[in-house]
Amino acid sequence: MLTLVLNCGGSSVKYQLIEMPAEKVLAKGSVERIGREDGELELEIPGKKPVKQVLPVADHGQAIRLALEALTDDNGGIIPSFKEIDAVGHRVVHGGEKCIGSLLITDEVISVLKEFYDLAPLHNPPNVEGIEVCQRLMPEVPMVAVFDSSLHQTVPPYAYIYAIPYEYYEQYRVRRYGFHGITFRYMTQRAGELLERPLEELRIVNLMLGSGTTACAFKEGRSIDVSTGLTPTEGLVQSTRCGDLDPLVVTYLMRREGLGPDEMDRVLNRESGWLGISGVSSDLREVFAAAKAGDARAELAIDAFTYRTKKYVGAYAAAMGGLDVLVFSGGVGEKSPAVRERICSGLEFLGIYLDQEANRSDSPEKSIAQPQSRVEILVIPTNEELVIARDTYEIVRQKSHG
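The structure corresponding to this sequence follows.
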């Protein structure tokens, strides 16, 4: 089954063409800087020269068309036409309580996704746009939505409820939902494979550290707590999102600055995080470079980010009654030894002892714990696309068998 996997983010579309059930990646690429004149298209096909183009990309719809055109290009492509694609799997951020697991996409599912535009404003709109574009281009091809939020439906009520009047949960389902669940599914499964132990025996703290960041407590084979909440903005310091803060900061600033809800939403989601503290960039590499050059605000941003993350490791160890495994993933978690070192430093009382040499090694997937460490420390490159492809294959196969 030839499966196209699409991951539509706020300003990018990542895609892979995977042959299932062999799990063979035939092609992968991305369209970055959507909405700009200097958009970037990339396509990698094993055995062929990578394709890289700089061109205007108006919106997500055009980005997906460009990706499909690259895959079907007579010279640099891999398939002759869209008709070769048997199924499409879409990453979707927010499904609330209505979307418990991965689902075959119907009009009803799309309507539910639109209900959550306000709760995932950077992701659900482009997720739905990606689905609708694919439906127009490939109307007969079955499509599956795989949700970032569904893994955390196992979080107990005392962990997901907010201490506000209960009628707001009853009327509007205001609660903690949690995100990055697709990555956490891959991280935990891979950790169990590497350690050759069943997940039901392991207490794991997963740290998904990219431009968006989430911490997850995983015990007895399920998610029991997660740092992101009603929206992806709660929790750790992120690239442009604020993470945890006193909620009255919001109303205070709205009154002092004369901001409306949409303007305050922009501040919290797009102008905060390590960008807001440093004033340098939403790219943490540039923040580190500025800190190395002596920028005090850049150093403060890094300290705030790593300190907040460290606190969550300790909190989740307490919630689980101990800790067996600490896992790093995501662009920052996988590629920044300095971030991993700062987070692990001072956690020796939990049995976390970082091996500095292993931490700085070039191996992408690795153990970075010292031999005496009671807690295994793993770096696991995420593979959301494989999880999406597996779910898509199973759901479409079941549909074809009635």
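The chain has two domains: 2-147, 195-379.
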